[in-house]
Design brief:
Blueprint: H1 3-20, H2 24-28, H3 33-53, H4 60-74, H5 80-88, H6 97-104, H7 106-115, H8 118-141, E1 149-150, H9 154-179, H10 188-209, H11 211-216, E2 219-220, H12 224-229, H13 241-267, H14 272-295, H15 308-320, H16 325-335
Helix pairs in contact: 1-3, 1-7, 3-4, 3-7, 3-8, 3-9, 4-5, 4-8, 8-9, 9-10, 10-13, 10-14, 13-14, 14-15, 14-16
Length: about 325
Amino acid sequence: MSARLRSSSRTLRTAILRSVSRSFYLSIGFLPRRLREPIALAYLLARTTDTVADTVRIPGTVRIETLKMLSDGIQGNASREVVIEQVAALVPLQKNAAERTLLHSLPDCLEWLDRTGAADRNDIRVVLENITHGQMLDLRRFGNPVQVRALQTASDLDEYTYLVAGCVGEFWTRLCFRHLRDFASLPQDEMLALGRRYGMALQLINVLRDTGNDLLAGRCYFPEDELGAKGLTAAEILHESERFQPIYQRWMEKAQENLVCGMEYSRAIWNRRVRAATVLPALIGARTLTLLRRAGTSALHQTIKVPRREVRGLLLSLAITFASRKKIDAIFHMAKP
């Protein structure tokens, strides 16, 4: 790797990564370098595709076309220059300065990807293919922000949470088994299954937390058949939040069940630093679910987030206890309602 590329990749995984992530940047600091680099690169590429998908100042059809072109570029199936030029046209449309910088950094990200080892590069491409597929499905399903549309079935929601996050749990698992000797006490197949459910839990928590804002943007991730059984439409949820609560509570219970898989996954990891990085999202997720339950119906009308000081407190606790299994279990059970 050239000195210039080493310098640009260092900037990407430090300053730029820190600017576009809330807790992930803190978590990734626990990882050994051989894991930190491919995981940071995959995250930056996923945030880039997410930024393209969320550029609301252009029509959905244009976003889908640009996202498809960007996906082809990541897969090595399109001219890098054409991809960079098309994405660069979106830079002035970003209100967030960090996201403008991220899109500007696409050439360095793609070059970094080209210089990554073949096995890691292939895994990055597989996970990004799933993520961009999920993002494009989202744009097709919710193409009209004026009309609130719901997913049809629970299977549609499971598919969505797998494509944008469950596959990340699988990606993390494959990298760790490749790069770490004696990564876990459980076999790879079991860790892949647990990692998949863990990732799906984290995305489902995002869905639960963002329900109100999603509805205002015309998106309802809760199944139409479940709403219909309660005599509700997606457009009525914000005004009929009490009637919606049983559905909301049921999906919170599913998220909690899958978070338990994340704890089982984390406890199986031998390396304490990797265990700390892996378990942090589960601990934040459990605390988020508690805050959502406490907020009740008002959760649909406000932004619920774990305060940054609490996240830093969790990090400190993990660091000073070397992410002991006893300690992470205690934190998880304290966070539960």
